[in-house]
Predict the 3D structure of the following.
Amino acid sequence: MIGILIAKFKNFIRNPWTFLIFTGMSLLMAFIFGGTNAQEVYIPISTVDKQIKDSYIGEQLEKEEGINFSWMSEEQLREKIETGKAELGVVLDNNTYQIIVGIDSHNTGLVEQIISRIYYEKQEQEKILTIVGQDETVIEELNHALEQPVFEIESATFRGEGAFIYDNSLHRIFGFSLFFVIYTIAYNVLPILIEKRGGIWDRLILSPVKKSEMYIANLLFSFLTGYFQVLVIFFFFRFVIGVNFYGRFVETILLLIPYVFAIVALAILVTALVKKVQQFNAVLPILAISMAMIGGAYWPIEIVESKILLLLAKINPLTYGLEILKGITVYSYSLQELLLPISILVLMGVVMMGLGIHFMERRHI
Amino acid sequence: MIELIDLTKKFKQNFAVKNLNMFIEKGEIVGLLGPNGAGKSTAISMLSSLVEPTSGDVQFENKSILKNPSSFRKIVGMVPQEIALYEDLTAEENLQFFGRIYQLRGKKLSKKVDEVLEQIGLTDRRKDIVKKFSGGMKRRLNIGVAMLHDPEMLIMDEPTVGIDPQSRNYILDTVKRLNAERQMTVLYTSHYMEEVEFLCDRIYIMDKGNLIAAGTKEEIKQIISSEKTVSIKAEILKHDFIQALEENPLINRVTVGEKEVTILVPKDANVFSEVIKLAETNGMELTSVDNKTPTLEDVFLHLTGRALRD
């Protein structure tokens, strides 16, 4: 078995193009459609007094996560809103602010809340300083207290049943990764068909190597290359682009495993059902694209209303793969809450692999 | 050593192999001759325990290999018709891979790889990637892989298809050498009768799944001992001349080539004057008329009415 794996990896190093092409495609598509900072809300901001940018208000706005405050002139700000490039903008003065709304969305309230909090904090500080004067020790202690408060407050939101959260950036990363990895895995399972037709498989059958070892080596290699591809994509977005995966990066990459396993099993089933490489090349894109469309890789499945499509989605591994990945990140589900889609993927994998190997073995003793 | 008993393989309603009976003794080179689609590859796939027969049995030393193929698989080396190699690996890496599969390790593996590369004449090209090899070199390596575990028996399925004459001669000489030096048993399938005639002690001829002749070269040629073959050559073969040959009661069978007509006639018949007369009548100029020594091709022609490469 180790011998087969070594040969596979040597082959992979000499001919890595399938892997590189599909990894590159995933990165490119997720990058283009997901945007590099699409997780952040873009808000143009301008000031009446230029000193505000370097003051407490400016510092706090820079620190704000989730919203990208972009400094510009008021004229540019209004142009951005008029041309629809920004939902809203904020014009800051020393003690007041003005919110200019182009499209009324939930971000308006969110931005107003942040700005009013910062102004309130600024006023509080100013009041304290008025009382204590310019005592540097007190100012230092005040800053320290603000940075490390006595009570740590954690806030959480709740939502109604049936509501869904759409994170465009993560959805594209997950969708395109799960879609393109189907190709990488399938084209790594395909050599079983080629080796069977080319006589290598027969040579291995006649050797002391057990058939189970032959299958395990081939499927393990396909699994590892597929998993490695998704890891490369996720690591790129996490550490190069800075997508934070809602702080659950490790869980995300671990919970990919059932999906990759199910796709390896699907690939072996398809390989067993076709007779020629040409048939495989014809079937695979149809299958992968259908799975991506029905499973919600291109758009959120939550917006699909057709009962037939929703029914088909229930037998599609990609649906459950996305459900797990979005569940662990966007919805912050616990492992227990994700047991159902994980179990379905494992079951699908076991059934498809069993059928695939059975069909492949019909010809042989 | 090995016996095939009433071996049959049926795909849906078609018989790929029907009631095949064969035996192969230790140390002999046996040829399995037949045109493409005769059932040779299916027969050797069943013999080598790769394909399950519909009925019949394959026995190795009087034990069925269908139930327990492992003891037979240990002593057999398979050279498939296809190039069963990893084309992105070098010749040496291919041999190392298949050697490891046969549980060879360390110095033993290196020694064996060197030995096989020497035998197949690829020592100088050991570091080259297989996909850059010529067809003949790939075929040689294909054979080399089957020899790594020192098999007692080599099953070769059309090992010279699509290669140049020089490589073909090299392969045929290698097979002869292996048989002479190591007493290796060889089952050699081909549709090139001259290869089988050159190599084999005994020959089986198959057509459309059936065994149509078996024996030594001499025994098989005796099948047409009552007939002889006459070759008629001309630059242009006229249709009327061929029709006249076919209608002639002296001539048993007429096979038309591009510039040659082969006729089967009774051994004692003198057809020369008759053929020349027919040519003159039909305004045709002959370049030669020869009596031919019977070949396996002639036997096949006699038995099936078709040439081996039809």
Observations:
- The two ends of chain B are 34 Å apart (CA to CA).
